[in-house]
UniProtKB/TrEMBL annotation:
NCBIfam families: ahpD_dom
Domain of life of the organism encoding this protein: Bacteria
Pfam families xref list: CMD
Annotated ranges, domain Carboxymuconolactone decarboxylase-like: 25-107
Protein name: Carboxymuconolactone decarboxylase family protein
InterPro entries in the cross-refs: AhpD-like, AhpD_core, CMD-like
GO molecular-function terms, A-Z: peroxiredoxin activity
Taxonomic lineage from the root: Bacteria, Pseudomonadati, Pseudomonadota, Alphaproteobacteria, Rhodobacterales
Length: 116
């Protein structure tokens, strides 16, 4: 699926996730805590961890992962060049499909870092 408005995509997905949280609150709370703990800075900083998550999202062909992890990578100060190198690693690991999703990831990053 090609997303044309990444911010709207996140808003729509947030709404769907709210419905899911209502149905399986313990699972979603556990997942939230896992995500928070995984991204906390340690030996690797949060930006690096978000770029790793982005590469995995590209290789796994996950639109939601592209949206959330490009937005988070931008929040933690990732540059377009860092995202490009992350895409390169994802393509190395995931082949042609990762090339397509890498282009989508770059579009998402550009959308979240565009100057208004």
């Amino acid at each position: 699926m090609a997303v044309s408005d990444w911010q709207s995509f996140i808003e729509q997905t947030d709404g769907r996730m709210a419905d899911l949280r209502g149905g399986i609150p313990a699972v979603t709370k556990g997942f939230h805590e896992l995500a928070r703990a995984a991204i906390q800075p340690g030996v690797l900083d949060s930006k690096t961890k978000e770029l790793i998550a982005l590469a995995i999202g590209i290789a796994a062909r996950c639109d939601g992962c592209l949206a959330y992890h490009t937005k988070a990578a931008a929040k933690y100060g990732a540059t377009r060049e860092e995202v490009m190198e992350t895409i390169g690693v994802a393509v190395y690991m995931g082949g042609g499909p990762s090339m397509i999703y890498g282009a989508e990831a770059l579009a998402a990053f550009d959308a979240f870092t565009a100057k208004s």
